[in-house]
């Protein structure tokens, strides 16, 4: 234990270290790394708020700038952009129903409803505070348990991933609050849409019909903007009566005592789930956020409120996704393996600086390792200090008449989607998905399960086929006792499925009995 | 048989249509492989089949009365014929562009324009839907030829027209503010490679 | 009438002036991949460095899609005025023509190749507990149990995949190919022991080799890599093992322009790019990616190199049966 405090001490010293910085001929002595952290989280929040433009593109564009900076400062800034974008993404999810990151999709469900009811303030505050708590706890976890957790991450092979995703998909069905069968059908439709593009295992281009822009599949941002953003705007404009979307009767800025009381459990559970799932390369943080939502919905006594503005529906996924964001650094810092595209960029940044990422970073460059970890905590602190006062500003923004608000939202969405590959085609796809979303909502089908199926589908198929390749065609590889993790997830999925189906089965039986009696 | 639940009726049809589409395309073009060594068609066919099955259940269910369930009529601001016409316009314009040898982008712009005008004139209830979609198409396909300024103006004007009220001065001011913001944040700040001025203006004052 | 003549004269002058005063407006460097990969990073390094000598900014534009084909096609079919450049690589110039059935551009006829930026060897890495201490033992192991060993790669048709296929052909062994989405997940699975070997590019596996998580058995170039001086090349091994002689594969990328770009522009571009690459800071950073300074320095050498690679890979792809659509 002593060594932890020792190490954290090294980290803090590194963060606050005074360095001589020369700019425009003037040399100043500044705590450079902290300033980098601040710039990073500010930038991250900004791009998180702007729909469509994500941390990947921003970090890539800033990489040349980092060449001139010291390695520690550069990495601290880039990390700040990453988790800052998580905070910013929650803001758009709550305010305008547009998920900034894939893990903010779930926050849209209840967060946006809260905003429409005039409770945007408590929603944003919950997101910020929940994220801060999660950030603190998970940073501590990273500090203390990084190496053993990394070993656990390595144990996840294709079979385990597949089973985890099956569990994730079953939970996705729980997200819907309407018809169960239609929710399952939407998940499957999402799965199918996710298959468009190049198949990893065979290299074949599927469902592209010669359109070369579809060769890499349909982007998540495109679908999210279309089905959540555009669909929502059209839905709002369609109302016959001119009613302002956000009630002008804006409530309090901060959560009430009741809200705080309800928040505590979900935040804790979300943090635990997020920290655990974040270490898994590839999709861990996303699964964490809606796994947390599903868990809360099932165990909460306010579960009927979910989907209509339950505060647990914001607290749990926000904590989960921030915890996941922090712990997703573990495979990078300990093994040199990136968990997602942002981490891959960080590896690039490290290599350009001449640092070889891997297990030796911890021992050979303790200042870098511990400096980054402590900067993550400091960054979270900065973010909550920044975001809480901003809530007042965001609320003011919502009082702007909708006829001025929606073209602004539209233009940011269009710019964001266009900048994905600098092609008009993606905006065309976004419009198509907007139309699809509009039709689905009219038909009583919800977009959230579709988008989750969309993200998980290709991953599921990739892992299924890879597991079968490796096992040379043995389908029992998922259930085998030698793979306890995989078996465990599949059993959990089965149990969850039964739990989900039970209420509606019971209701049908009661219906049948009632019909018999009359 | 009376349709007790129109939402389920159309939803079921939609799911079956999508499911069949994926199954048929996959079977026609890609290899199934075996359960042991799955080919690229395996997953789509299985999932597509499942979707058709679920769609059929939802479809069948729409004819049965459901105790206590909400029955909402489906109020789409357009009907199937409108949809077919809109798709037809796009397809026709694409072929026309190919025949004339001009870029497909202009076909998309023309189709968006035609469908927008048609909807405003013949189906005013679909104004919001069509104009919002058309505005993002306009932005995307006008960005390269006309630059950020005009593409944004197009998007803002067209989408504002799809709203409940449209005041010229207000929209003009909004356009100005948003264009300045976009140029500062996106082009200067984030260095996104968007052209600001139209193609035919050689030297843009802002770059 | 007089006004028309003046206008004509000005137009002609403007026309000739533009040709002589290249560059008079910003250049556009298309990266046909999503931001963040090694090609994107080198492009941004280069763009930043070229701004000063050229006097105009070089704007990097990402145009991902179809394994790089979309971006390359954009420049191949675009204006040949010297303002449109593309990062071309082994995939888009040498492999994709045979991997994809209808490639929209011809790598030799539609493009002029200006400068080769980076050449990175691939390295044969195996998982730590594989009972083979060198290439000969690996071949023996593979021959004992055909179809038992798994080799991973970053994608079907990548250099890692094709290197593996070449190895299999030359040694007459059969190993199962497991494709991944990128080398990182493949490396992770190898470290965990789920796959046995990989022909990964040096930059991505160097950290793991140095930390001892995986073992390097050989490199794929003719000369030993300065990063791994103790690791033999497959060519060296080929002196004692039949079939592996002459094994020479690298991953490479460089800058190309449309075919009809004026020669003067191509020469100036080539000179400036070479100067940028020789700058110590750029050299150091490219070195950090595993690259050694390429011996190929002129556009003509580059073009000849591309033609040779195209020939090699057309043959290899056909024999391996890999297909992308």
Task: Describe the SSE topology.
The complex is a heterotrimer of chains A (518), B (207) and C (325).
Chain A: H1 2-16, E1 19-23, E2 26-30, H2 32-49, H3 55-66, H4 71-96, H5 105-116, H6 120-154, H7 158-175, H8 180-194, E3 197-198, E4 205-206, H9 220-238, H10 257-278, H11 284-299, H12 312-327, H13 330-335, H14 341-352, H15 360-364, H16 366-398, H17 402-418, H18 425-442, H19 447-470, H20 484-517
Antiparallel strand pairs in A: 1-2, 3-4
Chain B: H1 6-29, H2 42-61, H3 80-100, H4 104-122, H5 127-161, H6 168-189
Chain C: H1 2-20, E1 27-31, H2 38-54, E2 58-62, H3 69-76, E3 84-89, H4 90-99, E4 111-127, H5 135-144, E5 150-153, H6 159-171, E6 176-179, H7 183-191, E7 197-201, H8 202-210, E8 214-219, H9 234-237, E9 250-258, H10 263-278, H11 280-288, H12 299-320
Parallel strand pairs in C: 1-2, 1-3, 5-6, 5-7
Antiparallel strand pairs in C: 3-9, 4-7, 4-8, 4-9
Helix pairs in contact in C: 2-10, 4-12
Outline the structure in words.
The complex is a heterotrimer of chains A (518), B (207) and C (325). With 518 residues, chain A is an all-alpha fold. Chain A has 20 helices and four strands. In chain A, helix 3 runs antiparallel to helix 4 (71-96), helix 4 (71-96) packs antiparallel against helix 12 and helix 6 runs antiparallel to helix 16 (366-398). The mean pLDDT of chain A is 84. Chain B is mostly helical. Chain B has a domain at 1-75. The longest helix of chain B has 35 residues, at 127-161. Chain B is extended, with a radius of gyration of 23 Å. In chain B, 39% of the residues are buried. The mean pLDDT of chain B is 85. Chain C has helices spanning 2-20, 38-54, 69-76, 90-99, 135-144, 159-171, 183-191, 202-210, 234-237, 263-278, 280-288, 299-320, and strands at residues 27-31, 58-62, 84-89, 111-127, 150-153, 176-179, 197-201, 214-219, 250-258. Chain C is an alpha/beta fold and 325 residues long. Chain C is built from twelve helices and nine strands. The model of chain C is unreliable at 13-19 (pLDDT under 50). In chain C, strands 1, 2, 3, 4, 5, 6, 7, 8 and 9 form a nine-stranded mixed sheet that branches. Chains in contact: A-B, A-C, B-C. At the A-B interface, helix 3, helix 8, helix 9, helix 17 and helix 18 of A face helix 1, helix 2, helix 5 and helix 6 of B.
